[in-house]
Amino acid sequence: MERLIDLAPGAWILLALAGTIVGLSKTALPGANTISIAVFAAILPARTSTGALLLLLIVGDMFALLSYRRHAHWPTLLRLAPAVAAGLVLGAVFLAFAGNGVVRPVIGAILLAMTGITLWRRRRAPTAAEPHGHLDTTLGYGTLGGFTTMVANAGGPVMSLYFLAMRTPVNVFLGTAAWFFAIVNLVKVPVLVGLGLITAPVLLLDAVLVPMVVLGALFGRWLIPRIHQGVFDRIVLMLTVLGAAYLLIP
């Protein structure tokens, strides 16, 4: 764990690609971040990957805010806050006791279950959004979003499914998500430092990968005006399912 910088060249190539996807996920395709989670968890110990990926996500958050900060829907963020806080606490407790072999399949199973629920709700009401005040939806997605983002930085797909269930327009989706994760990821930093998951080797690894995050974020800013709402929704769902399925592989 302490020699992360000595990874094989192939591992570095995959991590660089994952870093690029982190940036892309923040400014264009939120579901794509599940691929980064899977790559980091495959190359690094699962718990270590949580700390390493968090710092890159924060860099991506900065670009997301620069691009979409004015489009956030603050009433949605305020409704989610209590459930997300509860999920963060549950995730911190789980992370303190769970081993590397437990973290990946738990997150994968949650993501697949939430994708199934989202597809069922969209098929049940194909043209109408769920009421923004729907309490069980907000509590369910909010708690799972807080839990999964603390445990494996996998809150992005969960919250993407929530915004899709609400049939949120693309720019509002990205703006609300930008503020949500900018706040939540900063809150997570002292927790992960306290758990020993952010160390000097992790910081060095992240310093090498930051330029790739910037590259991905800039490409995402170019890409998003060229994506239709329906295509955007389908891509988010597809990437979530693929990433979740990979996390379930032993």
TrEMBL record:
Keywords: Cell membrane, Membrane, Transmembrane, Transmembrane helix, Transport
Transmembrane segments: 7-25, 37-65, 77-96, 102-120, 169-187, 193-219, 231-249
Cell compartment(s), UniProt: Cell membrane
Topology in the lipid bilayer: Multi-pass membrane protein
Main location: membrane
Family named by the database record: Belongs to the 4-toluene sulfonate uptake permease (TSUP) (TC 2.A.102) family.
Protein name stated in the entry: Probable membrane transporter protein
Organism: Microbacterium capsulatum
